[in-house]
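Format notes (please read before filing issues)

Several people have asked whether sequences and structure tokens are stored in separate files. They are not. Every record keeps both together, in the order shown below: the sequence lines, then the token lines. Line labels are part of the format and must not be stripped during preprocessing.
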Amino acid sequence: MTVNDAVAKRISTLLKEKGISQYRLEQRSGIQHGSMQCIMNGRNKTVTLSTVFMLARGFDISLLEFLDDECFRSDNLEIE
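Then the structure lines:
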């Protein structure tokens, strides 16, 4: 799993947990719809730390809470 895949998976999980739509997350985080689509569809090869920070803010959680998931464990990620 790539870092982008892990971020997309975490977004999907948190959207379900928080009961919000992707559109609402885009509004809260300030991430453009096209950028979010690239992340969610795997067209984005790299996700920056600032983007992850914006996502965490959109979910109203800390950066550490966003990254505290099994999908980010180093043995599960393909680091390029």
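For reference, the curators noted about this record: The two ends are 11 Å apart (CA to CA). The chain has five helices and no strands.
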